[in-house]
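User: Assemble these into one structure.

Assistant: Restating your components, then the assembled model:
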Amino acid sequence: MTEQLSQNEPLLSVVDLVKNFDDLCVLKNITNEFHEGEVVSIMGPSGSGKSTFIRCLNHIEEPTSGKIYFDGIEVTNPKTDLDTVRRDMGMVFQNFGLFPHLTAIENIMLAPLKVKKQKKAEARNFALKLLERVGLSDKADSYPKQLSGGQQQRVAIARSLAMKPRVLLFDEPTSALDPEMVREVLDVMTSLAQEGMTMIVVSHEINFIREASSRVLVLVDGEVIEDGPSKEVIDNPSHPRTKEFLGKIL
Amino acid sequence: MMNTKKRGKNKYSTTIISSVLLILFFIYFLFFSNADWSLFKEQFLNFEKMEGRYYIFISPFFLVLKISFFSCFFASLIGLCFAVIRNYNFKILDMLITSYVVLFRSIPAMVLVVLVYFALPFVGLNLPSTNSVIMSLSLLFGAYTTEIFRSGINSVDKLQIEASKSLGMNSLKTMRFIILPQAMRVVIPPLTTVLIDVLKTTSIAYVVGVPELIARARQMEGVIGSVTPLIFVSILYFLIILPVVILSSRLEKRSRKWSKA
Ligand SMILES: Nc1ncnc2c1ncn2[C@@H]1O[C@H](COP(=O)(O)OP(=O)(O)OP(=O)(O)O)[C@@H](O)[C@H]1O
Ligand SMILES: [Mg+2]
């Protein structure tokens, strides 16, 4: 199925993306395409620019130069209404970023109510469905501080799903979690992947990458040094830096 | 939830205990010290002499209430608006607001009230005395509330803003639904202090001839030869301040439900 869709226009494409922080060149001319239904993992050593890359995709970080197209719209065009673009691009953060003053269900309902102007009953019903699917039906009225890290991250996933995004961006969604909570979050992500959600995931969870993702990008010093099917890259990396890096995390 | 309830109760009992201690202390003082209580009572608590004169305070009371309400309202509004504007980092506006804060924090209240009332007519702005007091107090205390709201807004984690934006919320909605509600937790205690200060500073209105409570009390003091009217007026001030205190602790309690600390 992925194969077939890949021949169509990409959902998201990145052309010559460059990002500098002052003198520091963090992303060096990255060009890539992401197709509907693809699950792409991004790996790389600390400081290689993974977060910066994924944050440029929904323009939370402003690229220095280069172009990003999402569903035919040029995100990097100053005239583009970013708020509209971002509705369709969910993002899940390493440190969850739940709104502490809102309960779990309020976190999920907020954007549908305020951005999509949904009716309260409609938003609530969908939010309850999402909570059920991430296994947290009983936590609807809990505040974030009353939830464990794994539960918070699952609410955060539900919150981005509430906008029915066309792509989900994850920046190390499990690396702030205690080991025993990693599984519950990865399970939710794996099931999303199986249902055909387009996902771009910065992660070093080898099992998730092997099972759920179709393609891996390896980012080193702001450059994609490897780009290929997950199993191939993990089991048979071609670039020496990839071998070195995988040796450290495996 | 249990935790919050318990802590709320504890706070309540602290208030009760401290009030009881205070009262016990007064009783001790009244009965066991050898102070001359009859003289003290005649000077400070001579309510017999005030009989038939209480009506004098009715209209000043409502006047002070009105000045207090509008001054607090506009002072908070100025602080909120200026702090929000500063959040967007427009260079010129930033500079203007910063100079406003520096300037108005250093003007004595009395000077500003006099200036607004007596000097503004020369540039064609004739304000009734009550309104000129409201304007002065709003501007004066708006300088403080600007700083309070600004530090409240700054206290909100950057990740909150990114999370909000990534959901397609524009910056106005992010401000309204994400930043300000969280900022309130930090803002309320110092804001309460400033608003109480506003209420007490309304007494400055006498310099432009507004018939407010303290001025009336001092007049009566001369007539009846006792400080009692001032004591009575203090009670009225307490009544005006009470709602602010209650509202503030309500809001604080509400934010304790979700805040980490
Ligand atoms: N706002 C910023 N200002 C200046 N430098 C920054 C900023 N954000 C990131 N950097 C720098 O850019 C480089 C890449 O950072 P980035 O966070 O994208 O790396 P990463 O691959 O996500 O690393 P990690 O695995 O540690 O999360 C780092 O050297 C970092 O110090
Ligand atoms: Mg990172």
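Residues A 50-51, 171-172 surround magnesium ion (ligand 2) (CB under 6 Å).
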